[in-house]
Amino acid sequence: MTPLEQIRASLEALAGLAARVSADQAEEIAAIADRFEATLRGGGTLYFAGNGGSAADAQHLATEYVVRYQTTRPAMRAVALTTDTSLLTACANDMGFDEVFARQVEALAEPGDLLVLHSTSGESPNVIRAAQTAKARGVAVVAFLGRGGGHLKELADAALVIPADDTARIQELHLAIEHVICDLVEGRLRG
User: Fold this and answer.
1) Looking at the predicted structure, is the pLDDT value of residue 125 above 80?
2) If we measure between CA atoms, which residue out of 100, 111, 119, 123 comes closest to residue 162?
3) Where are the alpha helices (DSSP H) in 42-147?
4) DSSP codes joined into one string, 14-49
5) Residue 113: helix, strand or coil by DSSP?
6) In percent, how much of the chain has pLDDT > 90?
7) CA geometry: angle 153, 155, 158, nearest 5 deg
8) N or C: fewer beta carbons within 10 Å in the chain?
9) Is 144 helix (H, G, I), strand (E, B) or coil?
10) DSSP state of 72
11) Sign of the CA dihedral running 168, 185, 123, 107
């Protein structure tokens, strides 16, 4: 395959997957946007977490809510649980890496907040522990997943599962969908 053929094939595969998700899961996406809006409208906080590229997505999304997405408007309450290196490394060292998000959920999250987890597999022990801790505290959980959703799908109050096995494609759609959700929420809560 030539480089041009590879470029076209990759982008066409991504576009086809996006079209499939749009056709099959738009209602689930709208329902998740409603959850985000209700959380923020009620004075709650959106807490985002994930590993690797999903950690980057968590930070990216929290920033969109706090700073701005499309328009300048009042800040919205959002925190990425992936950013405090002292906390993450102390917890990993003292309690194990499986607890790095759960410990923060235990300390910060309250009923009325929303824990938003990103996982391409739905099997990462630290996001599973975070979901379990949230549920024990009465905090709702939304999960953006791939590969069938894994165990995390069963723990989430709402889950969006990208029907793919390719980590890059899953993460690309997670970010695109969450941008759509942010745009909807920002439009509804503007000013």
Assistant:
1) yes
2) 119
3) 53-66, 85-94, 102-108, 125-136
4) HHHHHHHHHHHHHHHHHHHHHHHHHHHHTT--EEEE
5) strand
6) 98
7) 65
8) C
9) strand
10) -
11) positive
How far is 189 from 191, CA to CA, in rounded Å? 6
Strand 158-162: give its sheet, edge to edge.
Answer: 78-80, 46-50, 114-119, 140-146, 158-162
Domain 26-189 in CATH: superfamily?
A: Glucose-6-phosphate isomerase like protein; domain 1 (3.40.50.10490)
Distance of alpha carbon 16 from alpha carbon 187, whole angstroms:
28
Query: Tens digits of per-residue pLDDT, 127-139?
Result: 999 999 999 999 9
Q: Are 140 and 155 in contact (CB under 8 A)?
A: no
Run of H or E residues at 78 = strand 78-80
Residue boundaries of the structural domains of the chain: 26-189
Residue 191 pLDDT more than 70? no
Distance CA 110, CA 113 (A): 6
Q: Tokens 């999304």 belong to which residue?
A: 61
